[in-house]
């Protein structure tokens, strides 16, 4: 005890120093180790939770749920899938049916990358589970659909361009009336796959001029006749004659070329115009009987000479084919000279 009466705290004895150091070490280890353990446990929980929940691209009405990392990845996959199927249509005009939804959930399989999710969505589309649609104006010609366009204005522009295309070679002052479309045209609002909707006017014009009926042309064989062709291809003999002007169908020759059916386009532009041409006027043939020739014999005495005339026609044209020519008036430029033919006496019966 101290002289003033205070109690003195005894200091550590030399033998107590290792125990003190051990106690200090335990305190330090606990202050550092326990937070580390807690942090490790928290990390394991977060990691396990992150693997148990993901963003699901779910297709309504089906059991398809494509798991991706997060909502941003899901939106990116849907956007890329839609763009890949939009064709030339703007993205805002395209719809996916049924519209996939994004939701958080537990994935049943592997979490997919964005590229893999796009492939999965495309597989669902190819299987008919998803549909990519867009509003369109479908052009019908005589009741048959021929073209899908974006707007009615596009349809009018394409038809006007076709009229301009076929009338461009004819002076405008020569055209009588306005060009018209032969077929009955109807425009209907419908939904179509974006790839089927034409947004290029040049492509639309080419599509409208594709033949709805292919042409048929033949080369005459040894036993072929006009009547046989008519029966075989379901056309009339008169139609074959109309398509082959100047051909004598009663005297067909082997190897002769005939048009049986002309290719018919989807759309026919009809217009009428005046055309003035200079052409030959056929000469007449005069027969002069003579006893100087043998019976049935003929001999040209004077060669004929065709005349010349300027003829004004009213021509009706379908696209680039003249289907009708009516002569309006004729101006003679030079007279024709008749051909004189000496003809022997007629053959007696029995000869």
Structural features, described:
The structure is a single chain. The chain has helices at residues 17-52, 71-85, 114-126, 152-167, 201-208, 226-233, 237-243; strands at 54-58, 65-68, 94-97, 101-105, 131-141, 144-149, 175-181, 185-192, 197-198, 211-213, 216-219, 257-261, 264-265, 269-281, 285-289, 298-302, 307-318, 321-334, 339-343. The radius of gyration is 47 Å and the shape is rod-shaped. The strands form 6 sheets. Strands 3, 5, 6, 8 and 9 form a 5-stranded mixed β-sheet that branches. Strands 7-14-17-18 form a 4-stranded antiparallel β-sheet, with helices on one face. Mean pLDDT is 86; it is low at 1-9. It is an alpha+beta fold and 351 residues long. 29% of the residues lie in helices and 34% in strands. It folds into 4 domains: 54-129, no CATH class; 135-210, no CATH class; 215-262, Roll (Membrane-bound Lytic Murein Transglycosylase D, Chain A), CATH 3.10.350.10; 271-351, Resuscitation-promoting factor rpfb (Resuscitation-promoting factor rpfb fold, Single Sheet), CATH 2.20.230.10.
List keywords for this structure.
single chain, 351 residues, alpha+beta, Membrane-bound Lytic Murein Transglycosylase D, Chain A, 4 domains, five-stranded mixed β-sheet, four-stranded antiparallel β-sheet, 7 helices, 19 strands, 29% helix, rod-shaped, disordered N terminus
Question: Gist?
Answer:
With 351 residues, the chain is of the alpha+beta class. It contains seven helices and 19 strands.
């Amino acid at each position: 005890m101290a002289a003033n009466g205070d109690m003195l705290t005894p200091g550590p004895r030399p033998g107590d120093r290792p125990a003190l150091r051990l106690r200090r070490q335990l305190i330090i280890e606990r202050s550092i180790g326990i937070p580390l353990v807690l942090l490790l446990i928290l990390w394991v929980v977060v990691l396990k939770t992150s693997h148990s929940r993901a963003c699901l691209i779910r297709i309504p009405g089906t059991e398809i749920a494509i798991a991706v990392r997060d909502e941003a990845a899901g939106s990116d996959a849907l956007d890329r899938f839609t763009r890949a199927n939009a064709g030339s249509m703007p993205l805002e005009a395209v719809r996916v049916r049924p519209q996939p939804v994004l939701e958080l959930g537990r994935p049943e399989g592997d979490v997919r990358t964005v590229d893999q999710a796009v492939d999965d969505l495309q597989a669902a589309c190819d299987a008919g589970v998803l549909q990519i649609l867009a509003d369109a104006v479908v052009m019908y010609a005589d009741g048959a659909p021929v073209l899908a366009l974006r707007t009615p204005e596009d349809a009018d522009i394409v038809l006007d361009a076709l009229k301009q295309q076929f009338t461009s070679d004819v002076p405008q002052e020569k055209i009588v009336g306005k060009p018209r479309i032969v077929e009955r045209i109807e425009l209907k609002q419908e939904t179509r796959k974006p790839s089927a909707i034409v947004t290029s006017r040049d492509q639309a014009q080419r599509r409208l001029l594709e033949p709805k009926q292919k042409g048929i042309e033949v080369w005459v064989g040894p036993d072929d006749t006009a009547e046989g062709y008519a029966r075989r291809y379901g056309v009339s003999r008169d139609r074959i004659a109309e398509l082959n002007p100047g051909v004598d169908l009663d005297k067909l020759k082997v190897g002769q070329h005939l048009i049986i059916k002309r290719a018919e386009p989807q759309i026919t532009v009809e217009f009428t115009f005046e055309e003035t041409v200079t052409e030959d006027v056929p000469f007449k043939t005069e027969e002069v009987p003579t006893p100087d020739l043998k019976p049935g014999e003929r001999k040209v005495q004077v060669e004929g000479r065709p005349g010349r005339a300027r003829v004004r026609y009213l021509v009706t044209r379908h696209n680039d084919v003249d289907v009708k020519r009516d002569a309006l008036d004729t101006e003679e430029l030079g007279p024709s000279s008749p051909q004189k033919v000496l003809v022997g006496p007629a053959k007696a019966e029995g000869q």
